[in-house]
Amino acid sequence: MARPESLERSAWRDLKLSYVARVEKIEADARGQVKVRVRWYYRPEESIGGRRQFHGSKEVFLSDHYDEQSVDTIDGKCVVHTFKSYTKLDAVGNEV
């Protein structure tokens, strides 16, 4: 998971939801600063159609929005399932 650098770290911690991105590439620039190229996921309420009744509370959509961030913006790791793999899970946690 990554957060945009434009958000102050303290402000980001106040948010209940993390930004989710897929790391596409990791590389260091000429000055040795490590950067990641990410592809962002969006929640239904962030899309034009908005959240609908059939959307899961944890549902995200892979976008065509790419970005380059400092590696320091990565706060953790998560697993994003395709719909097909999600439906094959034995146990799915609460949709809270």
Automatic annotation (TrEMBL):
Lineage: superkingdom: Eukaryota
SMART domains: BAH
Recorded GO MF terms: chromatin binding
Span of domain BAH: 1-96
Protein name: BAH domain-containing protein
Species of the source: Stephania yunnanensis
